[in-house]
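can u do me a favor
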């Protein structure tokens, strides 16, 4: 029988010989051997369990070590990120403290982020948790606040394209005498907030105004030296209108013609600032059908004063009038003094008269410049002045109003090059400016080779205004009616239907009349016929008699 090794060793120690065969002893030895075998099995099983537990504990220790390593790395990364974030916060605070722009992040409900630039705080005050961007930007202007608030409500509702809503928010503000530009930049996709960027453009606008003033003055000086007499006549007429007239009591249609003529004359001599104010006054008068109020008229007066002072410092326009005499003519006068015939008297009188050529040359330069601006390059202008001279003061209103006929010829008469070529014409347009003496009358013509008057359009417009349009005579009369224009848009150049009316009024005031002849595709001729001498009393009498 095989005993447990421990039992076998004990039996050999106890019984060096043979183990007694007593049944009781044998049973006892068997039980002890079985107990040892069971205990040994339990031991092995326990050892195996301990081995497994030890391996699991080892793996858990390794996992814990790895977690500790990961946590250590995370702590180091968090510390690094925290330091980086702190640095960025310091940098952002430094930027926000020193940037010249006003910066603020704004939620769609109008609440303002806690961090905004010092410039924003300086212009609009420090925001708090209850602040809303519309109140912050608008200040004491409730209408502006409502405008901005409506824009943010539209952003939240998402009922309109983002670009459209942002374009409707106010782009400019005035705060504390400073002009501010406001930009709204979207944040997030989908939209979660806006970055409001406010820039002080006061100095920029001042520089722009100064540059525009310098360019205007340069242009004026150039044109004034080419036609000093015409420029001085423009100054005198504008002084009479702007400084001596007030809109109250002046019929609206007459005031519209005067402002329109002033705009044309100002544009002719490059006085853009005055032309722009006149254009704004025209627009207001046309839409509201009332004369400018005191503030609107004051803007024209102030603009004119500013220009007059600038021009006066360079051109001495306030000095006593003088006559510029051509040197050769002056020598001819000197040579004729000894003659018995009084031919010299007529020559001396001519010193105080206007050479019509200077005016026609000015109109030619204006026409060429306008044609270039409208994309009608290479305009050909022919001048036929017939060496005429006329009274400077008497015909000054004519030259101021005639610019309307020149502009209409270039803007509405002469077609673009491609249309001209398609109609069998030269690509470039042609303009003829003429002054001639017919008996005791001065005839001034502006003739173009353009498309001619669109008589059907004139008839339609005349009917819309309640004017007769049954005969060609009716249409001839309608062309000179106040406000009749077939232009599709109103510009600084033309489009209100006042220019030709102003020209007619000027001719009637001088005792003359104006005619317009035109054939489809054959061009248009505007002809002004005026008596060489005519008293104002006779003009009034003639006007009343015709009325």
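np, heres the sequence
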């Amino acid at each position: 029988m095989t005993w447990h090794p421990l039992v076998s060793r004990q039996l050999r120690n106890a019984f060096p010989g043979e183990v007694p065969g007593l049944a009781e002893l044998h049973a006892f030895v068997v039980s002890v051997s079985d107990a040892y075998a069971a205990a040994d099995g339990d031991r092995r099983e326990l050892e195996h369990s301990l081995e497994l537990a030890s391996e699991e504990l080892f793996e858990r220790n390794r996992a814990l070590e790895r977690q500790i390593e990961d946590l250590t790395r995370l702590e180091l990364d968090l510390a690094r990120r925290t330091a980086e974030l702190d640095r960025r916060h310091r940098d952002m605070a430094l930027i926000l403290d020193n940037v010249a722009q006003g910066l603020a992040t704004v939620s769609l409900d109008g609440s303002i982020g806690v961090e905004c630039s010092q410039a924003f705080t300086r212009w609009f005050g420090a925001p708090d948790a209850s602040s809303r961007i519309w109140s912050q930007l608008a200040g004491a202007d409730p209408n502006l606040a409502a405008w901005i608030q409506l824009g943010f409500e539209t952003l939240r509702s998402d009922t309109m394209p983002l670009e459209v809503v942002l374009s409707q928010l106010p782009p400019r503000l005035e705060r504390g005498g400073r002009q501010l530009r406001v930009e709204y930049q979207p944040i997030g996709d989908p939209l979660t907030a806006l970055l409001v960027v406010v820039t002080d453009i006061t100095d920029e606008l001042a520089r722009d105004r100064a540059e525009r003033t310098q360019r205007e003055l340069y242009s004026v000086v150039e044109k004034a030296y080419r036609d000093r007499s015409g420029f001085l006549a423009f100054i005198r007429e504008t002084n009479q209108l702007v400084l001596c007239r007030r809109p109250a009591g002046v019929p609206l249609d007459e005031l519209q013609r005067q402002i329109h003529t002033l705009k044309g004359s100002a544009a002719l001599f490059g006085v853009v600032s005055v032309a722009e104010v006149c254009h704004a006054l025209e627009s207001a008068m046309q839409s509201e059908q009332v004369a400018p109020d005191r503030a609107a008229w004051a803007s024209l007066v102030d603009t004119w004063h500013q220009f007059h002072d600038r021009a006066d410092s360079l051109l001495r326009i306030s000095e006593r009038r003088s006559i510029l005499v051509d040197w050769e003519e002056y020598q001819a006068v000197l040579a004729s003094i000894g003659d018995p015939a009084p031919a010299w008297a007529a020559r001396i009188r001519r010193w105080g008269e206007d050479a019509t050529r200077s005016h026609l040359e000015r109109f030619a330069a204006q026409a060429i410049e306008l044609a270039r601006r409208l994309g009608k390059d290479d305009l050909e202008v022919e001048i036929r002045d017939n060496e005429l001279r006329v009274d400077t003061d008497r015909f000054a209103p004519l030259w101021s109003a005639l610019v309307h006929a020149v502009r209409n010829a270039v803007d509405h008469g002469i077609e673009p090059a491609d249309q001209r070529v398609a109609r069998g014409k030269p690509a470039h347009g042609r303009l003829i400016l003429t002054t001639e003496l017919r008996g005791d009358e001065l005839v001034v013509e502006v003739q173009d080779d353009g498309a001619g008057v669109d008589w059907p359009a004139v008839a339609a417009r005349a009917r819309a205004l309640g004017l007769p349009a049954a005969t060609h005579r009716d249409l001839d009369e309608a062309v000179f009616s106040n406000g009749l224009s077939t232009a599709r848009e109103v510009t600084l150049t033309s489009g209100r239907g006042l220019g030709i009316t102003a020209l007619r009024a000027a001719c009637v005031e001088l005792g003359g009349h104006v005619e317009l002849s035109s054939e489809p595709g054959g061009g248009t001729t505007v002809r002004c016929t005026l008596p060489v001498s005519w008293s104002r009393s006779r003009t009034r009498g003639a006007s009343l008699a015709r009325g």
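The longest helix spans residues 23-98. hope that helps!!
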